[in-house]
What we know:
By secondary structure, this protein is mainly alpha-helical. The protein is built from 1 helix and no strands. It has one helix at residues 2-102. The longest helix has 101 residues, at 2-102. It is rod-shaped, with a radius of gyration of 44 Å. The termini are far apart. The relative contact order is 0.03. This is BLOC-1-related complex subunit 7. Its main location: membrane. It comes from Hucho hucho (huchen).
Amino acid sequence: MASAESQPRFGQSVKGLLSDKVGSCSGDVIALTRQVLKGSRSQELLGQAARNMVIQEDAILHSEDSLRKMSIITTHLQYQQEAIQKNVEHSKNLQDQLRHLLN
């Protein structure tokens, strides 16, 4: 009889242990799922950062190209300014010569 009484306790004991293990495994699965989702989110953020970096790199290249063009334009404007200054000096000389001839 003692063994008949111990059977239900043993069954309950096994069920309790099994229930605890199932609960523990469920917690582990939940933690693993959270970690996978966190890793997935990290991969998503890394992908977004890479796309943003490509966009920034394109913007930098475009800015460099614009600066190079502006440098060329500045050089041309300097040449035009020098030409205008020479023409103004030449014009003053002509005005002086014309005044001298008219006086």
